[in-house]
Amino acid sequence: MNKKLHLAKEKLIVALDVNTTEAALELVRKLSPRVGMFKVGMQLFYSAGPDVVRRIKEEGVRVFLDLKLHDIPNTVAQAARALAGLGADIINVHAAGGTAMMRAAAGAVRERAAALGLPAPLVISVTVLTSIDQPVFQQELGYSGDIQGKVRAWAILTKEAGLDGVVASPKEIAVIREACGDDFKIITPGIRPAWSVSDDQKRIMTPAEAIDQGASYLVVGRPVTGDADPSAAAQKILSEMAEVL
Ligand SMILES: O=C(O)c1cc(=O)[nH]c(=O)n1[C@@H]1O[C@H](COP(=O)(O)O)[C@@H](O)[C@H]1O
């Protein structure tokens, strides 16, 4: 693997949105030559249980534990403390929970990881979900202004709360970078290669466009896991990313 493909591999996160540990491990084994990190989200975690995180880590890959915690600060801190013991590399909470909640989560995660002698996972916030478009944002949810402005404001709050970065759509990368700097991690789902089908994702870009905008990591699910040949799909995405790295 050449240097650019290797760099692309480090930036690619595949969402393991399946129901069983066996199905998840099968994908990890198939894809780990091309993918550096795997995402365990609500579907897999709630179906298979917490041990799935340890089983995936045993395969020698990194894990983004995407449970999008959102509750009062004390509840989120206690839940985050429990999750920090599982050995994930990234944990997330919703920015809409506010700075006190985010600060409590980050503090609990870092304290527990240190007590266990584990490296501290990155703690990041989810801003405006990539399935939300401007009409839903404004008319249904009742927010004023545009999505980009809200994402920028929540990214700034996230940084002020001492978190490591955000999840946002690739369309907001430029404004987040400008507001939060180069060290702030920006993780972008809503990745749709030109050859993939359209679905519930609304604020989308291709892998090359997202890299070009300066994404730290790309999260890709169905375009890889729903393909008849997931390894070939991952390879195509890697090549598209590498072209602009
Ligand atoms: O936090 C996330 O990972 C996330 C945030 C967001 O705004 N949008 C979003 O799609 N995600 C997750 O990213 C993954 C995207 O998967 P695909 O739409 O299949 O590529 C899913 O597992 C989502 O849960």
Automatic annotation (TrEMBL):
Per UniProt, residues of the Orotidine 5'-phosphate decarboxylase domain are 11-237
Annotated InterPro entries: Aldolase_TIM (IPR013785), OMPdecase (IPR014732), OMPdecase_AS (IPR018089), OMPdecase_bac (IPR047596), OMPdeCOase_dom (IPR001754), RibuloseP-bd_barrel (IPR011060)
Q: Give one GO term, molecular function aspect.
A: orotidine-5'-phosphate decarboxylase activity
Entry's EC annotation: 4.1.1.23
- SUPFAM superfamilies named among the record's database cross-references: Ribulose-phoshate binding barrel
Query: Which PROSITE patterns does UniProt cross-reference here?
Result: OMPDECASE
- Entry keyword set: Decarboxylase, Lyase, Pyrimidine biosynthesis
Q: Which residues form the active site?
A: 66, 68, 71
Highest rank taxon of the organism: Bacteria
- In the record, which residues are listed under signal peptide? none
Offer a single GO CC term for the protein: cytosol
Catalysed reaction equations from the record: orotidine 5'-phosphate + H(+) = UMP + CO2
Q: Does the keyword Chaperone apply?
A: no
Binding partners and assembly: Homodimer.
Q: Record's family?
A: Belongs to the OMP decarboxylase family. Type 1 subfamily.
Q: What does this protein do?
A: Catalyzes the decarboxylation of orotidine 5'-monophosphate (OMP) to uridine 5'-monophosphate (UMP).
What is the name listed in the Swiss-Prot or TrEMBL entry for this protein? Orotidine 5'-phosphate decarboxylase
Name of the gene: pyrF
